[in-house]
Amino acid sequence: MTSQPQTIEGWQAWQVGQRGLSFQVIGRTVLPVLDARTALMLAETLGFDGRVVALLLPAIEAGLSAVAAQTAIPDADDEDR
């Protein structure tokens, strides 16, 4: 991770975001998928502020998507075009 959460709420969102993370394989590409429902249930179980976590989870997901797009391996079929 290149940046660290700056607040306790950011840290909490990052913790449940990591635990709500799974990976989906599409072709040769592995995409991170954030299960927001699992993350929010975990936040509630841990006594975190679910409202703040819910607001921060989309930012985590956007960051994961950006990294996945940068590291995607092009399909062999794309090279022929």
Task: List the keywords.
single chain, 4 helices, 81 residues, two-stranded antiparallel sheet, alpha+beta
Can you describe what's shown?
It is a single chain. The chain is globular. 16% of the residues are buried. The protein has one domain (8-70). It is built from four helices and two strands. Helix 1 (8-19) crosses helix 2. It has 81 residues and is an alpha+beta fold. The protein has a two-stranded antiparallel ribbon. The longest helix has 22 residues, at 50-71. It is 60% helix and 15% strand. It has helices at residues 8-19, 36-46, 50-71, 76-79; strands at residues 21-26, 29-34. A hairpin with a 2-residue loop joins strand 1 and strand 2 (29-34). It starts with 7 loop residues before the first helix and ends with a helix.
Q: What gyration radius follows from the Cα positions, in whole Å?
A: 15 Å
Largest sheet: 2 strands, antiparallel
Write down how many β-strands occur, each being a DSSP E stretch of 2 or more residues: 2
Helix content: 55-70%
Strand arrangement within the widest β-sheet reads 1-2
Please give the count of helices.
4
Q: Could you state the oligomeric state of the chains shown?
A: single chain
Question: How do you describe this structure in short?
Answer:
This protein has one domain. The chain is built from four helices and two strands. The model has no long low-confidence stretch (mean pLDDT about 85).
What's the structural blueprint in terms of helices and strands?
Layout: H1 8-19, E1 21-26, E2 29-34, H2 36-46, H3 50-71, H4 76-79
